[in-house]
Structures are given as structure tokens and as C-alpha cells.
């Protein structure tokens, strides 16, 4: 990976200007008397941010000076500085907490930053020292206009969890309903103003120094996300919407929100028992099959993506619980509905088509779709990104690449530069980045559950087809069971295809010929159904 630097040393100047501006902004944001403490705290945090960034910039300049950009020495030093800087930033985020932790996590989820950053910052835990119970109590009583003792039979003062913007308590309502109470920390809006302002100023100066990175765009996205997350009414709305999508799915549980006890800063919902979705010990103890859990998880998210186009923004294991229902049965509990992405309808359909093409190994279709997604020649990387294959690949999905393919891919990637990746990422529609991130988080959970890749591929394949069906349904076709049966049959065939391809590859016998025959077979089947759709 490479960086470009402007050759002249304007960085120190820029940064001191940034520092001055940030401190002024911090002071200006805090005119009212009651916010003096907050402002003081803001200044401490802003100064810490500025000095860290100044150090990082100086480190890059100093360590890389006089080295030819394509020399090995440069690459080696660069990687060292990346790592050192990432560690500095990690410390900064931990010290400043709040939005800095969120920002660090946000950065670590981006693909265009060097891997030293993603790997270092990804260990940022969204954990905070809980607030004093008195402060939390004040927020609840102010928001709900009633004393805690009037609302609750019991209220656990010790929080279950404390994250960077809110903490969650357990309690029991007067009607004996067990609830989770999510309470936003006091003074957050003002903190956010100050923090975002500092980050804006810093990112402006950084993007002058590292022109390859689009920090400003990233910051804009970050800010938008944060202001949504600060409104719990929004969260209640989201959770209600997903709940209607999955009301018939017994394996999925969305905690019921008590709307009359919910305000922008306080959210009260049904309490759900369970353990993190990657807790294998719990599953073993309860006799729950990790394969079934992985399957349910993938089906849940595939349906959100392909069928509803409404996608949970942060599927990390802490937000998905496995809840034992006895005898090895279980529910998946989906938590934290603060951020959802509503996919553009055209994007959703194209994305369904893309998966259909990926499954069918239809490289021409993939390249066509690349045009639609506006990524042009980069479309050939889609199979690598999603299925771990090259576009020329003839072998089965869900099977590791052959040595020959790996070498071929390596050759291709060798000539790929950071600028290429950045422009590839920039050319992707924003919806696509969200999907990539979601896919990454899901893959990592599936990996921890020790389940094969085909679980994910099958769920995507099945729901990509369903997603395409939905379009026909809304046009008035296929409202009845015939469509269900048709989807089920197509799915069964896809499943057969994937499984037999895997088998064939394992036998490694006359592979191309047979795979091609199978491919034709499934194409024919799909074609047949396509015709039937209009003649049913
Ligand atoms: N309805 C619920 N039932 C049981 N536990 C809950 C419930 N809601 C939240 N929790 C607990 O509180 C934790 C944090 O909840 P949530 O993810 O909604 O908060 P958050 O502030 O958005 O945290 P993060 O940003 O880390 O996801 C969860 O991991 C879970 O342990
Ligand atoms: C939540 O939904 C209600 C209607 O159900 C709507 O009036 C309100 O504007 C929504 N709030 C937000 C923040 O989206
Ligand atoms: C199902 O719908 C098709 C057309 O959409 C119709 O021809 C058929 O009669 C319907 N079948 C039933 C059982 O309703
Ligand atoms: C199709 O499969 C689903 C489960 O995958 C099942 O619930 C449904 O009843 C099936 N529909 C028909 C018509 O067979």
C-alpha cells in the first residue's frame, strides 16, 4: 500500500492553525454558565486529540524523509509508522472516550485504511465507566416525568452494560414486566458538538497532508450516524419496523419497545435473556447446535438485505444473543436498533442479481452489473470479495481456491495500488459499503462458530432469489403458495448444485465438464421457472 505526501513541510503550520481553531470553537460552544465543566473537559479532550495528531504527522514526515517511495525500505518504514500511529490513535480514543471510541470503531470498519489501523483500532471496546446512578436516575425522571419508585417495582442500580453513549439497566415495571432500560448520558449533545468540531478541523488538515484519504467524507458520514443514534425514538421506530418483518419467524426475537415509556434519551423495552451469539460454551451447555445458530443468523441478515432492503447497522456479537428455549431449541435476539440502512430499491435488485450471477458463475452478468454499480473494470473483483474466487473461476463456490487461481489473483493484486483501492471504494455506491461491512461482521461470527462457508453462500443465494421474487409479487404476480413452492424448488436445486459441486471438486475428477453441465442444468431450471411465472 502506498501513500502520497506533498513534498513541502506545511504540516506543522496547518496543525497549529487547527489547534487554535479547535480551542476557540470549544470555548465558543460553551457560553452558558452550567456548561463550564463540560467545556473544560472539551478543551482537555481537544488538546489531547490535536497533540496526538501533530505527533503522528511529524512521525510520518520524519521517518519517511529522503526515502524513495518505491523502495523496500520505504514500505517497511511505512508499515512501522502506520502501526505506531495506530497505537497512538488507539490510546487517544481510549483516553477521550465517547465519540472518539465511536469514531475509532468507525475508522476500523473502513476498508480503505491501512491494515495496521484496522487491526489495531478494531480492539477498541465500546465500554465506558458507568455513570453515577444518581445522574442516570435524574435523566430518567426528567424524561419520563415520574419518580422511579412510581414506575418500577425494582431497578438494578448496577448497569448491565455501559457503552460510549448510553448505559443499560435491568428493572421490573409495576405490572411485573421485566425490562431493559437504556439511558443516554447527560450532556451528550454538547459533547458531540465539541468533539465533532475538533475532528472536523483535524480532518481538514490531515486531508491536506494525506490527499489520498477522504477524511471529510468519512467524518460527514460519522456525524450523520451519530445524530441518528442519539435519538431513541428513531431506535424504537426501527425496532418496530424490523419486528413486523420477522413477526412470523419464531427463531428471531426483537425486544418489544414500550413506546409510552420511551423518549429521545430513554428507551424501555422487554428484557431478553441470552448469551452472545459467539458463546460456544453456552451453546454446548444448552445443547444448541452452532450450525443451526449460524444458519438462523445468516437467514436473518440475508432476508434483511435482499428482501426488505433494511439492514441492521452493527451486527457485532454483543448485539445478537442466543436464547435457549429448552431441548436445544433457541431464539436469536437482535438488539441495538439505533442505526439501520435503508437500501435504495434499485440497488437492492441489482445486488440480488449480482448474487444470482455469483452463484451461477456467470462472469458476463457480473461485469454487466459492475457497470450498473458504477465500478467499471473493478467488477472483476466482486467474486473475490464475496465468494473468494476469481472471476475466471470454474470451480465450486464454497471451496477454497486452487493454487493456480491463488497465484493468478496474487499477480493481479500485486499491481493494485492504494489509489486503486481508494478509487474502487469511492466508486462503489454507499449502500455497497454498508453491505460489505455487514458481510464482514457476519463472516467473522460464522468463522467463530466454526461453520463452513456454504452456510453463508446458501443463505445469500436463497434470499437473493426471494428478493427478486418480491419484485414480481409487488407487480401482482404470485401472491399464493405457488410462488412459495417455486422458490423452495429453485432453492433446493441451488442447494443441490452447491453441494454437488463441492463433492465433485473433492473428487477432483473431470471437474470442468461436469460443473458446466450442472451449471447448464440449473440455468435451464431457472429458465423454466421464469417462463412458468407468467403462465401459472
Ligand atoms: N432488551 C434487552 N434485554 C437484555 N439485555 C439487553 C437488552 N438491551 C440491551 N441489553 C444489554 O445491554 C447491552 C448494550 O445494549 P445496546 O447494544 O442496545 O446499547 P449500545 O449503547 O448501543 O451499545 P453498543 O454501541 O455497544 O452496541 C447489550 O449488549 C445487552 O447485554
Ligand atoms: C417514528 O414514527 C412515528 C410514527 O410511527 C413518527 O411520527 C415519527 O416521526 C418517527 N420518528 C422518527 C425520529 O423517525
Ligand atoms: C395462484 O395465482 C395464480 C396467478 O397468480 C392463479 O392462476 C392461480 O389460480 C392461483 N392459485 C390459487 C390456488 O389460488
Ligand atoms: C417453503 O419453505 C419454507 C421453509 O424454508 C416453508 O416454511 C414453507 O412452508 C415452504 N412452502 C411450501 C409451499 O412448500
TrEMBL record:
Residues 124-367 form the ABC1 atypical kinase-like domain. Residues 1-33 form the signal peptide. Coiled coil: none annotated. Gene3D superfamilies: Transferase(Phosphotransferase) domain 1 (1.10.510.10). It comes from the Eukaryota. Keywords: Signal. SUPFAM superfamilies: Protein kinase-like (PK-like). Belongs to the protein kinase superfamily. ADCK protein kinase family. PANTHER family: AARF DOMAIN CONTAINING KINASE 5, ABC1 FAMILY PROTEIN. This is ABC1 atypical kinase-like domain-containing protein. The lineage of its organism: Eukaryota, Viridiplantae, Streptophyta, Embryophyta, Tracheophyta.
Amino acid at each position: 500500500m502506498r501513500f502520497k505526501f506533498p513534498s513541502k513541510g506545511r504540516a506543522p503550520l496547518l496543525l497549529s492553525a487547527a489547534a487554535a481553531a479547535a480551542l476557540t470553537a470549544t470555548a465558543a460552544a460553551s457560553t452558558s454558565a452550567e456548561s463550564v465543566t463540560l467545556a473544560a473537559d472539551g478543551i482537555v479532550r481537544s488538546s489531547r486529540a490535536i497533540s496526538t495528531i501533530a505527533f503522528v504527522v511529524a512521525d510520518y514526515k520524519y521517518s519517511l524523509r529522503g526515502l524513495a517511495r518505491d523502495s523496500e525500505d520505504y514500505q517497511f518504514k511505512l508499515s512501522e509508522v502506520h502501526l505506531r500511529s495506530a497505537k497512538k490513535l488507539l490510546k487517544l480514543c481510549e483516553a477521550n472516550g465517547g465519540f472518539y471510541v465511536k469514531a475509532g470503531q468507525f475508522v476500523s470498519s473502513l476498508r480503505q485504511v491501512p491494515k495496521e489501523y484496522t487491526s489495531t483500532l478494531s480492539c477498541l471496546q465500546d465500554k465506558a465507566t458507568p455513570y453515577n446512578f444518581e445522574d442516570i436516575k435524574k435523566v430518567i425522571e426528567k424524561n419520563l416525568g415520574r419518580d422511579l419508585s412510581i414506575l418500577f417495582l425494582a431497578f438494578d442500580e448496577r448497569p448491565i452494560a455501559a457503552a460510549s453513549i448510553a448505559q443499560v439497566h435491568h428493572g421490573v415495571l409495576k405490572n411485573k414486566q421485566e425490562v431493559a432500560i437504556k439511558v443516554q448520558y447527560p450532556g451528550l449533545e454538547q459533547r458531540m458538538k465539541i468533539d465533532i468540531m475538533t475532528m472536523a478541523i483535524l480532518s481538514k488538515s490531515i486531508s491536506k497532508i494525506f490527499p489520498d484519504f477522504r477524511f471529510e467524507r468519512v467524518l460527514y458520514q460519522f456525524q450523520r450516524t451519530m445524530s441518528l443514534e442519539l435519538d431513541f425514538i428513531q431506535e424504537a421506530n426501527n425496532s418496530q419496523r424490523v419486528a413486523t418483518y420477522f413477526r412470523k419467524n419464531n427463531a428471531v426475537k426483537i425486544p418489544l419497545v414500550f413506546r409510552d415509556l420511551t423518549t429521545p434519551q430513554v428507551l424501555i423495552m422487554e428484557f431478553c435473556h441470552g448469551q452472545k451469539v459467539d458463546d460456544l460454551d453456552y451453546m454446548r451447555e444448552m445443547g444448541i447446535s452452532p450450525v443451526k445458530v449460524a444458519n438462523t443468523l445468516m437467514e436473518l441478515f440475508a432476508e434483511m438485505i435482499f428482501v426488505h432492503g433494511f439492514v441492521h447497522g452493527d451486527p457485532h456479537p454483543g448485539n445478537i444473543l442466543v436464547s435457549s428455549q429448552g431441548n436445544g431449541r433457541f431464539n436469536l435476539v437482535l438488539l441495538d436498533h439505533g442505526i439501520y440502512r435503508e437500501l435504495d430499491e434499485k440497488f437492492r435488485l441489482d445486488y440480488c442479481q449480482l448474487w444470482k450471477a455469483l452463484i451461477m458463475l456467470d462472469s458476463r452478468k457480473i461485469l454487466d452489473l459492475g457497470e450498473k454499480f458504477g465500478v467499471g473494470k473493478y467488477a472483476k473483483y466482486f467474486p473475490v470479495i464475496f465468494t473468494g474466487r476469481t472471476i475466471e473461476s470454474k470451480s465450486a463456490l464454497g471451496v477454497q481456491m486452487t493454487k493456480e487461481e491463488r497465484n493468478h489473483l496474487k499477480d493481479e493484486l500485486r499491481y493494485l495500488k492504494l489509489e486503486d483501492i481508494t478509487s474502487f471504494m469511492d466508486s462503489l455506491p454507499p449502500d455497497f459499503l454498508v453491505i460489505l461491512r455487514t458481510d464482514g461482521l457476519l463472516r467473522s461470527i460464522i468463522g467463530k462458530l466454526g461453520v463452513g462457508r456454504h452456510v453463508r453462500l446458501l443463505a445469500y443465494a436463497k434470499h437473493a432469489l426471494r428478493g427478486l421474487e418480491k419484485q414480481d409479487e409487488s407487480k401482482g404476480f404470485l401472491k399464493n403458495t405457488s410462488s412459495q413452492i417455486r422458490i423452495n424448488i429453485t432453492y433446493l436445486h441451488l442447494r443441490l448444485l452447491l453441494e454437488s459441486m463441492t463433492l465433485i471438486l473433492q473428487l477432483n475428477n473431470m471437474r470442468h465438464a461436469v460443473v458446466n453441465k450442472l451449471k447448464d442444468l440449473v440455468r435451464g431450471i431457472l429458465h423454466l421457472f421464469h417462463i412458468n411465472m407468467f403462465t401459472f
